[in-house]
Amino acid sequence: MKNRKPMQKMLAMLLILILMGTLGLTGCSSNNDTTEPVGSTNGEAVEKTNKIFDSKIEAKFASEEIEGDFMTVWAEYFADEMLAWSDGDFDVTVYPYGTLGDTRDINELAQYGVVEYVFTDFAWISAFVPEAQVLALHYIWPSERLPEVIDHVVRNGEFMDILEESFRRNGLVPLSVMYEGWQWMTANKPIRTVEDMNGFKVRVMGSTLLVEDYMAYGASPTPMSYGEVYGGLQMGLIDGQVNPIFAIRSMNFYEVQNYFTQIYAEPFLGIPTVNMQFFDSLPQEAQQKMREWWIDAIIPSGKWIDEKTEIDLEAMLKDKPSIEVIEVTGEDLKPFKERAEKVYPKFLEIGGVQAEEILEALQKDIEAAKKALGIND
Q1: Domains of the chain by range and CATH?
Q2: Are the CB atoms for 358 and 163 separated by under 8 Å?
Q3: Domain of life of the organism in this record (predicted)?
Q4: What is the pLDDT of residues 293-345, one digit of tens each?
Q5: Using an 8 Å Cβ cutoff, are 146 and 181 in contact?
Q6: Would the pTM count as exceeding 0.85?
């Protein structure tokens, strides 16, 4: 994306705000999926003795993903829950990817308060919150029972408090960290060893640290907007890309790629985020409700996405049987891990004022979670 002057940015934000208020941009106020999330009221109002809000609140929730994908589906579940819990007083409208601009745009909209919520990820939000890039470090997470590990870290560790401090310096508040499946590399050549990565032009999300991760493997990483990836693959501007399975299917990347490779280096982690000024203006009961709902959703949404991953992978293999799925394991995985570890010091240079603090906290919290859950990875 080209750099824009501050005045141009502000004018763009104001224009979007005017359009949203006068033209009624298409959003999603409910979800048609029959699966009910944990803690759902199934659309029934919760009986309360005291009214929480003095007047009706209408909020906008921008998603990085298209209709039917993880972020948009779970944002819709959240919207349904808040509407029922508040007896109709807290009305959230969800805007899928592309409705309000690209990924960087919607993060800026949330920061400026043009939208109240954004479902972001650790990579794109790092343009504002460099500490979030700690989640981009490869092999920092165990490869098994990851939703449970994340749940333990978010509930019991120090990491979330530090992450919130860094977000608040930029006018935002993170409500949780959500597992959206493991990232897969797709390519038109087989990648079985780290040597196969040499010169591989791979699209990554917009994070300086992700670029460092893949450069360490010998690849030539290229940040690119989500909506430009298919064309980039089709025209040969890039050789491959990195995304979770659901995105590879929903964005049709598999149509122009022949190999899927899993190295278990990087889970895709979403961060439901709210504008700080808006959040702090809400009653404490509402703030607590939002935090609890998203944290309680970590494990069930993890199960949901794992099931969807199996369905989506099976569907792609049925549609294109020539696709070869490669899982790198054992001795072939060690060189990836060895090179990934060399990137950790780089995070301390580019990860913001709390880089060292947040890295130490996350590593400590993950080890505590593994011990509590009996994970030896």
Answers
A1: 10-33+56-181+268-307 (3.40.190.170), 182-267+325-373 (3.40.190.170)
A2: yes
A3: Bacteria
A4: 999 999 999 999 999 999 999 999 999 999 999 999 999 999 999 999 999 99
A5: no
A6: yes
